[in-house]
Protein 1
Amino acid sequence: MRLRRTRHVGWYEIMSQCPICGKKGWCGINEDQTIVHCMRVPSDKFKDTDIGRQYTHYLTEHIPREKIEVEVSNAVEKRSNDHLNRVYRALTREIPLSARHANHLMNDRMMDDQSIRLREYRTMPDRDRYKVAKGVIGRISSDTDLLGVPGFFAQEGRYGPYWTMAGDTGLMVPFRSILNEIIGWQIRVDKPKLELTMEGSIKGNILEEVEPLPNGLRRAKCSLQVQDKTLEVILTEKDKKICNSKSGQFVFSVRLQQGTKYWWWSSGSKLNGASIGGPLPVHLALPYPCLPYWKTGEDPSGLIDCSEIWITEGAMKADLAADMMVKPFMAIPGTGAFRLALEPLKQLGCRHVVLAYDADAVTTPEVQRSLELCAEFFAKESDMALSLAMWDVSLGKGIDDLLRANYVPQVSSLLA
């Protein structure tokens, strides 16, 4: 089991599969492997956090303890928004947006060329990152200004440590505070890591990726442990293998699939790096014609009516939706992370919040619970009205897909 240290002594974030829900990310476990705080499977005992409700589960004795691999943390405290903005603005002058990523935004996302330029998307380079870091240092006061800035870290070199940058190669999407400060980035990675999704009496791991099929589907050589047998097989992406017993009972299933496409640009596990958390950023997206007039450090309510703000997941999705609806959008890290939005919404003078989660997401039990908790939270902590934007998934998965297809969502009240 791969774990990452948290701010709470004796507790870790589970980076591999959670023993309760079987999914990766967000869930936590204590050092003794006796208690799990699961984000997806309900229990009678729970606690509410900035990223959502964590349900307490006690692991019974018959559940085998797994070997723990804890990520080594040499991180420092994340710096202030003002400092992050100064460094990240310098970064935007050191790296361009690649032609490939610009074409993706224009042709696949149907984003206006001026919007792409004003939103300052960038491309994480695949080489010579130390040169980029050196260029950033040259634009700011000193190399110590990179301390506490997520994404940058110190690499041990032949002649001592030097500054460079973490993260996979991909499209970089900036997160802006309500004062137009760039306070974080997500990377839409060009080649997401392959992962195994397994259910039932099976364990396994990926040994290596092999040549893809002519149609582009990726393949990997995998080691699978079924009962007392170990098999080496080549699996193809999206091809789910299911095994049933002779009597027809389910035994196990395994599927090879691409992992998460969007990753926070962070360096918390590296020397002198910093985690993006504490707290995670939220992103305010304004329609792009507002951006030339939105000065850093200024409230945007003088440029656009902020009494109604729509909330979705993902900064790029929020950017696209803001352009097409000509409304302010706020992007949160997950459906359960609505608490992070409350103070920024209050500061903007928001009176009506519209939740625009993905159409397929709102049908899942955990998101339905998040909606109920969100309504309870806003009823208790604010006097804002709360509504839900809904549409048929056949018209588009996300609010951006729906709008590109020239449809608009139906808005229903959750909290008057």
Note: The longest strand covers residues 250-258.
Protein 2
Amino acid sequence: MAMLGKRRPRRERSGVSGLQGRQPHSPAYTSSRGDAPSRECEAQGLVIERLAHDGRGVTHDAEGKTLFVDGALPGERVEVAIHLTRKRFDEAHVREVLEASPERVTPPCNHYQRCGGCDLQHLAVPAQRRHKQAVLVDLLARQGIELAAEPELLAGASQGYRRRARLGVKLDAEGRLHLGFRARHSHRLVDIAHCTILMPELDALLAPLHRQLISLQAPRQVGHLELLASDQGSTLVIRQLKEHVADREAWRAFATEHGIHLGWLVGREAPALEWLTPAPLLSCRVPGVERELELRFAPGDFLQVNAEVNRQMVKTALNWLGDLDGETLLDLFAGVGNFSLPLASAGARVVAVEGSPSMVERLDANARDNSLGGELQLSAQQADLAKQKTVAALLQNIGPEVVVLDPPREGAEAAAQALASAPGPRVLYIACDPATLARDAAHLVQGGYRITRIAVADMFVHTSHLESMLLFEHSRTEKRRQGALVDG
């Protein structure tokens, strides 16, 4: 798959991409235009042309104005209600599906119409994944990067996959207690009694948690709840705005009854975590070369929500990078070692850099606990990776053969610019935001890199969110590697 991605001249593109190409809008389509916050486009209905990157249907009214339609699929004829009018486009939702797409399915969750957690449950899972692949291809193309083949797909179960979630808690003006996720396009909470994407052991806690909150003496002092599943069982962390002794004991009894670990995070400013049950050593397992590796973490540390897909991503990194024995690898945005530890187990000398001091401590401990510590295997350090000078200094001082980037949604622009200015190492980029990835990929391609492997990871099934992995190689690096193979 060499030469998979290469730079090409920039060309104008439409504003969105989707599962099918843009279709001309017919003059027969009608809409009622006005200033009301919500209005209907009825008559013969509107035909949806494609999906936008965020999963909304895209069409045009009779006057050519673009409509983004929640809950609509390509090829469908729908009546819509417009709930927001803008200068260049309107936002709408489906009032009635007149002709349904063959890829429309019944959402598996009863809360789907109101909850903002999942936005693609009306679309069959294979079509969701094709859409995500198309989005990544389109965003790269907007940066002038054309792919010779479709991205690989890394995917797992479509339900019961999420191992962590944050639940909002609110007592309304009438005294009703709400526990759940935010409503779509709103700060209002939707009560969630059952969540199809949560791991079963976490989903089973939702109804008991609602009853528990109602029974508290001071439920208004609960900010939110965080649920977390690990190899040690289920953990609940309560964000408590103000100390309340009676409620503290009630929560302790709840944890005992349900056999869970319980953390108590108290205070509005700089809250400190206290364990109301014996403190657990939370951990999960990731694949190494010869054995499974144990990754310890704490509440608040970054942890991929989908364990199955994360394991596939780690295995893919090991496969793509191949023989690392004796190579120096720089892992930026390393977290607690999700990629650092497996790559060190492949024989690489890993320097893992993370911005959070507490996660650096756990990363270093994870290296020692998995017998990967020491000067020649894995060392951890803290640095501000948003600064190009910092990354450039790391590249100069360490001289890595491989660089791994696994940044937050803001991306790794400073690192990409530093690599483009001093090219050489192979770059494995793991991205949770395709738009910032495309921006950073453009810096690398302009610096002489090209994409040799690419994959979409369906980390968040039933949502428009996508993760991706790209392997970049520089022309001079490829020549060196090819020469070494010939000499060998």
Note: Confidence is low (pLDDT under 50) at residues 1-38.
Protein 3
Amino acid sequence: MIRKHFAGFAASALALAISAQAFAGTVTTDGTDIVIKTKGGLEVATTDKAFGFKVGGRLQADYSRFDGFYTGNGNSADAAYFRRAFLEIGGIAFTDWAYQINYDFSHNSGSSDDGYFDEASISYTGFNPVVLKFGRFDPEFGLEKATSSKWVTALERNAFYDIIDWTNGHQNGMGAQASYTYSNWAYVSAGAFSKDINDADGDSVKQFNARAVVAPMAEPGNVLHFGANFAQRSLDDVTAADVRYRSRLGMRGVETTGGNDAAPNGNRAIFAGTNSATQFWDDDSAWGLEAAWATGPFSLQGEWMKRETDSAGAQADLEATGYYVQAAYTLTGEARDYKLGKFDKIKPANKQIGAWEVYYRYDNISADNSVAVTATNYIREADDTEAKVHNLGVNWYANEAVKVSGMYTKAQTDKITNRNGDDDGDGFVMRLQYVF
């Protein structure tokens, strides 16, 4: 029922956006004058900025091909899918209230039971510079996650984010968050969340997140950024808690929705942990440090992260660490936009050739492990596991709406292979993105 009504609303909003661009005429209101913008979706706001809304969205169509460790038998496989297909509606009401609804038609966010919402939130800004946010949204953890998927440099965020996916994903729950911005150089946030995982009594998993950022330099092309993150959730009395330390190693097509993937031959290996109903756990914690520097068209950034899961049974505690380092350069000279706490888009200076960006990122995962596993698509030794991932890519920002990307990925593993014995794999991903 929710999807049916939302689909009708989405169709009406889209029709309104198209008609607004097709016809011109006189607009009258019963109060303050309004301004209508149709560049990049449909935006309507009163001149006093007390009311307004914007209808937009993003479409990311991916094609990938991969082999070796990325598949169970080592043979080549491919995937063609919508990575994201969002309709986004956001706005302001009565000056101090803001809302945002992002619905994912590719079904990579949410679920059939809870609705495929990437976000559905309400914020109160009347205590500026303090902002209070409520509803369904991703908790804050990490620099790459803070950067929108529309403008993140690589096609997929670093490989360790998969290991700590619960830290920055809403898992269909609800949350409340308070954030504070000091001038243009410091930002802190803290939030509490109720996740869609229950214990035997129906009590949901509770999670706490905190992020702090200091940016002595915070202008496009002149950035110096430092940050720290913490997240913790309690898994007390949760049967079959999912504590799998697993990663796609940068190749989403091994297992995804939104179209065709490599399943059942895609290898999304588990480096440690389990979701067995016979094992019980206590606190699950994650820490992270982040840093970035940018000068002109060049940017350098990295994050270090750690996850620990305390055992409440006979099994051993779990632990993993990871990091990435990324360097990017815009060949056409544009600087990457930066807003306090996150990077943003690249705006092409030349409308004919657009903006061209090249980048390299190195990811590393190390997980403590003492349990041997022979699974459908991988074999894990009773020893600590490791993965190294090299990513080399190019982005073409044809204009402010269209982005075309390509990325080559090379993964190498230790103490874990696919069923064919491969401990390395190669993959290539292409994406066509349209943002409105």
Note: The longest helix spans residues 2-22.
